[in-house]
Amino acid sequence: MPERLGGSETYDDSTVQKTKADQASAAQGSNCLDAPHLVGESESLLKDGAPAGPSMEDRGWAWMVVLGCFLAHVITGGLERSDGVFFLKLTSRYDESAQMTAWAGALSGTVMLSMGPVAGALCNRYSARASVMAGAVLYTLGLVFSGLAPSLPILIVCFGVVQGIGRGLSYAPGLIIVGMYFNRRRGLGVGLSTAGVGAGTFLLPPFVELIFETYGFSGAFLILGGLACNVFLVAMLYRPVFMHRQIVLRHRQKQRLSKHVELTVESDSSCREELLKKRTGVGNSLTNSHTCTSKTLSGDTPTSLNDCTHAKDEKTSEALVSTNQHQPGRCDLCRSQRNFELNAESTSVSSLRRHCQHTTDLEDQTFTSRGKLVLPSCLRSVLATCFPAEKRSTGTQRRKIMELSLLREPVFLFYCFSICLYTASLKSSLVFLPALVKSRGVSEIHAAYLLSISGILDTIGRVTSGVVLGLRPLQRLRSVFFNAFVFLLCALLFVVPSLSSFPEFVAVFGMFGMLTGAYVCQKSVILVDMLGQGKLGSSFGLLIFFQGLGNCVGPPLSGLLKDVFGQYDEVFYLSGGMLATAGCLMVISNIFHRRRVRRQAISMTAQ
């Protein structure tokens, strides 16, 4: 029997089949309501897989996912760009060498990016929501314990390792799930999402400085831990794609069923009117029978009385039979429609289990005992709703947690090395930019303003590139623009050592920030264009791991050049050379990609 559970509406398979058969038989010879097609549509809605009708991508909850990813980038990106402020506070508190103190921020960034494969594996095995929620726990604990660290090595573990793991698990799933929710407007969605880095760069460094001055070292880290708790809210916005499909399907069912109920009510009314007309005919027959009886009684003839009474019963039966014969299936249709309506308003527990295979039978576990089983089943239900596992398949089609075979594809491998060199160059430039500006006679406060200006234009570049390169005529040229961004950044870095005044630095690093934002915005979009949406989780996780390698190698190598040559000019020459190499590797990756697309087109034509 179908049951109601949680206000959701689905059909039991047996109910759907029975209703379909009743309607098919009732519709023969009836013009009251012909609705067998509705059952077929309802059955199609219940099938697993892609829903019928228009695509659910690029709209609706997809924009809430973008909002969540934007907030995650504000928090994570803003705190990452505040490493300079943290460096000064740690130096004044622990009085250690600059090299030792710098390991806190450097290790945090490296661990964050190195957690990419783990985050991608969690997204594949469970969901983006589960990965971000786990990251939020470590993120918060790492910041809170950092404020209580009695020595710098313990702080490096708390701030660099624990908080870095939390950052990594919170950062990567955002871009992965945005790529899953968007198709035609993926560039715009990613651009708006990653724009949070620029917003965080503009807002959080002054905020961090303010709370350290106001609440002290421990109080500031406690407040930052509270700020990291907002990542929990971000995780709840990352609704798993398969859960979103089920919600949309149930919503479409409700819309179709509401229309069907209206038609059923109209059909019921017309059937009742026709039945009333037939009953009126029965009433006339009964009147004639009573007249006959009266005449017979006046003649005191018992035999006539019996005959007339028998005639009355025969006429009544004939009238009732004629009512059913004149409308074959009409009343059956009304009954079947009412049954369909009742069945449509109920929910099948077995159907619900089929959509959520990881949940247990709530009816058996919740109501068999009033004592110990109630609380665990409720908790399991809440956890299953908040952290649903992706549908699992068995046998040879079992889903892989991490596809390391991607590293054997030249397209992806060259792309990863290109991103690695780009990250090493970018990190080195941002670390040593204030020192270079100060060596040119510019004050430290103006150097901070220079970073703020670069962060604002970074946001503008992300949004602009997402909108412009998301236009249909330019989508096929995304890889060309992506390469152009790299070579333009290379040219700007080669120009930096020749700058001498603050306005010149503003002009160059304003363009640098805009191009950097445009490049980062298209990173995951280019990845989907190369490998497809199905491999986004594993490929993006591996890509972030290569970013972590670049983040770890770039600044130490640049610092070595500074120690050898005694000035910062060679640092930016090295950064420009790494970007030039990254651009060449990206060109090679594009060549392999075009060859593969051409081979696939030829094979499809041959088939």
TrEMBL record:
Residues covered by the Major facilitator superfamily (MFS) profile domain: 61-595
InterPro entries, sorted: MFS, MFS_dom, MFS_trans_sf, Proton-linked_MCT
Annotated protein name in UniProt: Major facilitator superfamily (MFS) profile domain-containing protein
Membrane as UniProt keyword: yes
One Pfam short name: MFS_1
Membrane topology type: Multi-pass membrane protein
Keywords: Membrane, Transmembrane, Transmembrane helix
Gene Ontology CC annotations of this record: membrane
Transmembrane segments: 61-80, 100-123, 130-148, 154-181, 188-208, 214-238, 406-425, 445-468, 480-499, 505-528, 540-559, 571-592
UniProt-annotated stretches for the region Disordered: 1-28
Membrane keyword on record: yes
UniProt main location, coarse: membrane
Subcellular location: Membrane
